[in-house]
Each structure stands twice: as C-alpha cells, then as structure tokens.
Amino acid sequence: MQLALSTSAQVEHYLQRSKSIVIPLGSTEQHGPIGLIGTDTLCAQTIAARLGAHRGVLVAPALSLTVAQFNRGFAGTLTVRASTLLALILDVLHSLADQGFQRIYLLNGHGANIAVARAACQDFYLERGRMAGAVPHCRLRSWWEYPEVDRLRRAWYGSLEGLHATPSEVAIVMAAEPEHSARARREGEALAADAPAPLSAAFLRDHGGDNHFDAASHRAAFPDGRVGSHSILATREHGEALIAAAVADAARDLAAFEAEQ
Ligand code: NI
Questions:
Q1: Regarding the domain with residue range 3-256, which homologous superfamily does it belong to in the CATH classification?
Q2: What is the pTM of this model?
Q3: Distance 197 CA to ligand 1 centre (A)
Q4: How far is the CA of 70 from the centre of ligand 1 (A)?
C-alpha cells in the first residue's frame, strides 16, 4: 500500500488496523560506469514496495535527496547538508507521530544516511518524550544487512562487493529497471570491466558508512566512481534473488518490531 497512491480517507481507515509505516531512504548520486544515479533510491523503493504489497503495510514516498557531498565531483549527483537531512527526517517523523503512527521503519539504501537518520531519531525521541502521549519507535535497517541478503552478496561477490556501485545494488536495479540498466551496462562496460583494487582493512574501518572526505579528493581517489566494487558482476537474476531475500528478511524484521512493547 503506497501513501502517494492512497486517499486521506484510506489512510484514516488504515490507521484503525495498523500504526506502522515504512519510509525508504535513498540518494541521488553517481554509481560508477554502469550504475544509475537513482540506484540507492530504486533499491530502497523496490524492496519497500514489495514489502508493502506482501505485508499490507503503508509505504511513504522515498526520501531521495540526501547526503552525498563526497560525490559532488561527478555529474548528476545532488546533495543536501547533513543538517538539512536531519531536519527533514525529524519533521517527517513528527508528522507521522501527530497522525498516530507508532512504528516507523526506515528502510535504507545509502550508507551516508545511517548516521544522520540515527541522529534524527534521537532528537525525535527527545522532543516527543517532552510531549504528552506515547512516543513512537523508529527502526533503521539498511537492506544489505538483512541476513540472507548479506549471505548471498558475500557468496557471489566476496571482497569485490566493495563499498560503492556494489554489484549487489547494481543487480537490484537491473531487476527493477531492466531497460535503463541494460543501456547503462552497454555504454559503461569497457570501464567497469576492470576489477578495482581491493579496499584495505584500514580503509574499510575509516570510511564505512560513506564516511568520506571532500568531493575533490574522493574523485581523485576513485576516478571512475566505484569504491572497491566490481559492478559488472551484477546480473538481473542476482537482483531478483536479492530483492526476494530482502523482502522476506524485512517482513520478519518488521513483524518483530511491531511486536515489541
Ligand atoms: Ni549506492
């Protein structure tokens, strides 16, 4: 059930049977030679939409303009400040709480959203805790951390999964947007065919969750936009399997979240 495709009366009716909502979090940024700009949003949106259809849970429009300052050196990337995103998420959480939603599930597709969304939830609890009434709970999950998704991507790609323009995210978009993905793959194949150098343990420690430096040094370090990811290993079949695994894991996780006191 999609919020944007519902009437207000339908949402009122929904709130009589459920207090849960899913918010996909994405980005608008370069994803290497064959990955689409909307990759993170498309991944989160696709998994959330299928979860919504499977569980009958309401799905909000994706937040797709997020923090990607490190990719500003690549055409097509749009970024907002971390403080802007924090304020946006906080306002959305308050809007939902005002209407009676009690379980807010943030389904994330972009590493740089994690720190900001967690900070927004903390401010939300602070502000809501000072108001009368029950304080809604939020849960943040990135799709790649669902257990079966993580098992598949390790089995298929190993260290070539990398951190950005990953074969797993490119595969999901191939399944979700086959036409656009096939064209991007044809045009970028030569560049993406070179396996990138593996990332060091020190780099993974310091830069996980997209904890990168400024845009100029990021582009100098990763000139084709991939961060240790061999995107070309992606297939549409992998994408279908990753989506199915993510939806099954997310459905279990959402049910556990709803059952919490
Ligand atoms: Ni991404």
A1: Creatininase (3.40.50.10310)
A2: 0.97
A3: 19
A4: 13
